[in-house]
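Please, structure for the following, as tokens.
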Amino acid sequence: MANRDVPVNGKRSSLSLLKNGNLVLSDAGQFDVWDTKTLSAKPLELHLHDTGNLVLREQTNRSSVLWQSFNFPTDTLLPGQILTRFTTLVSSRSEGNYSSGFYKLFFDNDNVFRLLYEGPQVSSVYWPDPWLVSNNVGSGNGRSSYNSSRVAVLDELGKFSASDAFSYKTIDYGLLLQRRLTLDYDGNVRIYSRENGQEDWSITGQFKSQPCFIHGICGPYSICNHEQATGRKCVCLEGYSWIDSQDWSLGCKPNFQPTCDNKTEYRFVALYEVDFYGYDYGSSFSNYTYKQCEKWCSELCQCKGFQFSFPQDNGPFWCYPKTQLLNGHRSPGFRGQFFLRLPKGSAKENNLQNNEGLVCPRNAEKVLERPYVKGKENGSVKFVLRFAVGLGGFEVVCIFMVWCFLFRSSNHLVREDQQGYVLAAAAGCRRYTYSELKQATKGFSEEIGRGAGGTVYKGMLSDNRIAAIKKLHEFADQGESEFLTEMSIIGRLNHMNLIGMWGYCVDGKHRILVYEYMENGSLANNLSSNSLDWSKRYNIAMGMAKGLAYLHEECLEWILHCDIKPQNILLDSDYQPKVADFGLSKPLNRNNLNNSSFSRIRGTRGYMAPEWVFNLQITSKVDVYSYGIVVLEMITGRSPMIGVQDTEPGAESHERLATWVREKRRKAPEGASWVEQIVDPTLGSDYNVKQLEILAKVALDCVEEEKDVRPSMSQVVERLQSHEHGS
């Protein structure tokens, strides 16, 4: 990942080997993003070795290497790739974000191989264990600083060795397998192995056996807890709440206003078997009583709490006042307690009021006056002043009117460039003229779809490609904004389950988008024609989930679609689904995922999440809800737009499809397969029962009223993939 912090779009970007010997990566706008900075007048070739090393070398002298990827690792080492004093492994930011993260693996100036957390505010070494300070072999952390070569390497048999006397063997050591060592986004170094021909990697070793001992993993003012069955979990301290519930590494913030005055009274909350590493005030204080330690922390402005421990059976009590609460974790067997300092009266949970800000009271206003001596008026001077002021005012008005006219004219001329052309250039799309698209569609004669924002026509482009050409309504209220939104979003997306955009048109009042053509139309049309067998329906549900997971968590700018429905799911010649129509979409703020503002309700009745109706916080879970409704519609063959009536005599009708399905599950006899009562009758008995059960359960989880209970789309993908082959 040479350009991990400057990613490019997959469309129209290029990797070129220039005549001067420089290997250059260019984006869609033909700007150089990265290069090898090599120069040579001799013929060169780029060769990928079986080891994974990408080498730029001379054609006539292949031993003459100008550049190789093994010298520039990112977060991974391959067997035979040497980590030196000049190279560092840097983790990714998150599972789907491959930009530089907070963790580094490197040799320090003492020749010791270390793991470092380098966060936005603090940095600290967490491996080898910081409290083991000795560098002598056989004691302390078992490292040696006497070898200045500073090299480390993983071999094909599964052994990792470093020049500071550290070595590690995988659990499958000795087998000749494909291997890689990766510094993962959570700060742990893992060795992965797999046999030739396999797709999935298995973890066969990791440097840190206790994930909660990794610094920064849960952020400030939180506690990390790890259990074998449930994995790692981060919890805010009492009196604190998450800065961003989607990113635990940012930590928690106080639900109270921190103050430094002698008037504030504090209470101390005991936390058992909890330890916070580092940031002691001064040093530890021996032979302190609890009351002395509490008094000391109450009077110290920077104190956030204190550790009160007794490490030995007959030893003294130790007091450790903490100025910052970082790297908190549960430590079973820890001999002592941590006491968290909180203002008296602070709530246990986050119940912050929505303050309106400071308002100046009316009685606080006072007009400042300055007395002056009134002199004798001069009539001539008064007339001249009035005339000058009037003439000057008239000139200002004239100049302002002329300026407005010129500005409006120039703004009209450049508006298309500023909004349309620049966006399209960034997206790497072609610009078409209106006459070209009119000719391609034979005068916009073959209509294949229609929506609130525009009409879609089938057309043949000049390069003989069949395209879907979406012409936005000329005077639609949202037409211009939908055009700019859709072009800016789709042009940057690159996923097999998202519709691809080929071009655009900004010609006078015309706004047109050009997409790839989907041979099998929309999911809505196929459901109404009963042309989908069970395997196609399951694969469509899987593809939709993958496309939405990419939008929500994997693409460069996370996106809410806001209008998932069968009409917006298109099917290609192989019935692979592609999510389309991004006119109502909205980018997500990664730094504050729970604060997505919307000026109006978006979506289609029957598929909209309850958050829209009740004016609740809008998150990616609105798309999850809509996805669940679409899946229920595929399973049952019933539309959510109309009431659902059972075929049994005297059965009640339900306004909502999800309610009807839940009732079927609730009333099903124990041990009976309730899903067979809801399946689309047109399928007959030609379906996989296990797949039907998992898909129905996933859909019901997606349409839960409470958004926090719904799964994420990546979790949906994982659940469906486990039954993809009917197992």
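Residues 133-140, 349-377, 409-427, 590-595 have pLDDT under 50 and may be disordered. The longest strand covers residues 100-107.
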